[in-house]
């Protein structure tokens, strides 16, 4: 009678971790992907002063704000988007869902590992899901040939691909050549590409390249304030459409928005203007963040690798995707055969919360998990960040994982 929809694993681990803390249990929170950084001061001030903006905005969002966003993205990643082709909504998550809902039937190509919500959203929209496999050896990057070969599984006329980089759960990004090669295939296959670049501004070297620049014809870029601006709970997302978008497509998208969320919270739109009005001012704040995230990510990778856990250094965002496969046989001895069992035992034994690979599109037996290295407080002075004093929980959590795996396996 009811649709089969489980609570999203990301939100679930957040609630579970909070419940354990409420029961006075110590939890190191590597499960939920939430930025530890506060929005910059001018943005916070703008929100404080905007409480009296109690009116609704248009569905598409405030036009002055859309102008700011258009200018911001032109400077940040050379995107030429007109304010008329920008959609603002309460989070990019609902925008991705509504884009999928725009089509009655579609094949949705999802490179795996993939963020937890793409497949459930595509399923809710009634689409055919086509998983695009990648591998640890290829650093989880999707290969153009894989996309090409997957066409045999198509059932519908419309093809949509959801690309995500910097990647959640794997922290990957793509080089310009790789993006061009993917774009070439997407173009030949006449795909609509949703390029989820919510972590784009958190590229660790500030060198994020937008897919739309290589496939102008049919790329919708999604982004927002949740990650680089640390404002996930404010619920503010953006979709940057393309010049040649069919008017019926845009109208349907706005129509679905009007029948579901109406508009993004108006006070948040006022605050967003402060965030988007001056890219160079925000860049100072972003650079400090990415320096810190890079250092923490590299520390985690180095330490985990020393303990025989395979993991790629992150290239953006705040996730790594450690692979425990080298310990597979030994972990079996403790009844750990799946990534869910791995995460459950780790949480029980050590209080460290991470999310199983099964949440990201893998079969249960693949022993990997996503680690969000965000259990730290924003340093008082980001310019003089010191990992050992500013990130005690991250260090403790990583040590606990390493000690746990060694203790479990060395005596066998
Ligand atoms: N895409 C990815 C890859 C994410 O990790 C998230 C989680 N914040 C979202 C989209 C949705 O973000 P929001 O709705 O907060 O804009
Ligand atoms: N994107 C975050 C994560 O992957 C959490 C927010 C969400 O899932 O909506 O952990």
Architecture overview:
By secondary structure, this protein is an alpha/beta fold. The chain has helices at 9-22, 41-48, 63-77, 92-101, 118-124, 144-150, 176-188, 247-260, 266-276, 279-306, 328-332, 339-350, 387-390, 392-410; strands at 28-29, 86-89, 107-112, 128-133, 159-164, 192-196, 219-224, 237-240, 319-320, 352-353, 355-356, 369-372. The strands form three sheets. The protein has a seven-stranded mixed sheet with strand order 2-8-7-6-5-3-4, sandwiched between helices. It has a three-stranded antiparallel sheet with strand order 9-12-11. Helix 2 runs antiparallel to helix 9 (266-276). The longest helix has 28 residues, at 279-306. The termini are far apart. Bound molecules: 4'-deoxy-4'-aminopyridoxal-5'-phosphate and glutamic acid. Glutamic acid is lined by residues 8, 10-11, 32-33, 93, 168.
């Amino acid at each position: 009678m009811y649709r089969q929809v489980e609570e999203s694993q990301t939100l679930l681990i957040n609630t579970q971790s909070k419940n354990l803390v409420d029961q006075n249990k110590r939890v190191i929170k590597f499960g939920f992907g939430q930025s530890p950084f506060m929005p910059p001061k001018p943005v916070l001030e703008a929100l404080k002063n905007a409480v009296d903006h109690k009116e609704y905005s248009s569905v598409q969002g405030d036009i002055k704000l859309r102008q700011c966003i258009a200018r911001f993205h032109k400077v940040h990643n050379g995107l030429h988007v007109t304010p008329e082709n920008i959609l603002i909504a309460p989070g990019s998550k609902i925008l991705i869902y509504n884009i999928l809902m725009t089509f009655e039937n579609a094949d949705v190509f999802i490179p795996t590992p993939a963020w937890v919500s793409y497949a459930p959203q595509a399923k809710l929209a009634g689409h055919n899901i086509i998983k695009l496999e990648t591998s640890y050896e290829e650093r989880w990057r999707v290969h153009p040939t894989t996309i090409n070969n997957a066409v045999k599984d198509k059932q519908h006329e419309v093809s949509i691909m959801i690309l995500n980089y910097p990647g959640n759960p794997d922290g990957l990004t793509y080089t310009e050549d790789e993006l061009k090669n993917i774009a070439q295939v997407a173009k030949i296959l006449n795909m609509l590409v949703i390029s989820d670049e919510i972590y784009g501004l958190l590229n660790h070297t500030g060198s994020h390249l937008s897919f739309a620049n290589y496939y102008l014809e049919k790329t919708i870029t999604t982004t927002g304030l949740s990650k680089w601006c640390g404002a996930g709970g404010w619920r503010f997302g953006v979709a940057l459409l393309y010049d040649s978008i069919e008017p019926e497509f845009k109208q349907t998208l706005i129509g679905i928005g009007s029948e579901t969320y109406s508009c993004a919270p108006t006070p948040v739109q006022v605050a967003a203007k402060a965030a988007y009005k001056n890219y160079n001012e925000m860049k100072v704040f972003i650079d400090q963040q990415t320096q810190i995230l890079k250092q923490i990510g590299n520390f985690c990778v180095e330490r985990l690798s020393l303990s025989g856990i395979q993991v790629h250094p992150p290239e953006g965002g705040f996730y790594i995707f450690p692979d425990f496969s080298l310990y597979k046989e030994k972990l079996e001895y403790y009844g750990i055969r799946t990534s869910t069992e791995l995460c459950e035992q780790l949480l029980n034994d050590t209080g460290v919360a991470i999310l199983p690979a099964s949440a990201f599109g893998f079969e249960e037996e693949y022993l990997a998990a996503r680690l969000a290295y965000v259990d730290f407080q924003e340093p008082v002075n980001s310019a003089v960040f010191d990992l050992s004093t500013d990130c005690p929980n991250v260090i403790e959590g990583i040590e606990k994982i390493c000690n746990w795996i060694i203790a479990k396996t060395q005596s066998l």
